[in-house]
Amino acid sequence: MGSRGRGAQASASLLLFSLGLVLICFTSGVVAGQKTWCVAKPSASNEVLSLNLNYACSQVSCAVIQKGGPCYYPDNLVSRAAVAMNLYYAANGRHAWNCYFNNSALVVQSDPSYGSCTYY
């Protein structure tokens, strides 16, 4: 193989290695050493958010979003679903696939905690 073939092979190997690193970063729940959280897309329909909320709370304790809990307010579906979806995401290893929710959620790098409501 000529030097041109070796150069192309080295470039292809470097590209595959780089893609592998990107995949590891985005599927591990930690992006470049930073913690991630799962939140509901504000554009998600109420129907999908209700399904997500019910599913997540059937898998993990959602006591924090019950009346009197630290994440009860604001009392709206997007907020409650986001907390529940994040609880599920955190309990299942913070993998991107645990934050899919039928394409109605996002993995974010900014802590969405507010007031006394802590996102874990």
UniProtKB/TrEMBL annotation:
Domain X8: 36-119
Keyword Signal: yes
One matching Pfam family: X8
Annotated keywords: Signal
Gene3D superfamilies listed in its UniProt record: 1.20.58.1040
Gene Ontology annotations for the cellular component aspect, listed alphabetically: plasmodesma
Signal peptide: 1-32
Superkingdom of this protein's organism: Eukaryota
UniProt keyword annotation of Coiled coil present: no
Classification via PANTHER family: BETA-1,3 GLUCANASE, CARBOHYDRATE-BINDING X8 DOMAIN SUPERFAMILY PROTEIN
Protein name (Swiss-Prot/TrEMBL): X8 domain-containing protein
Species, as recorded: Dichanthelium oligosanthes
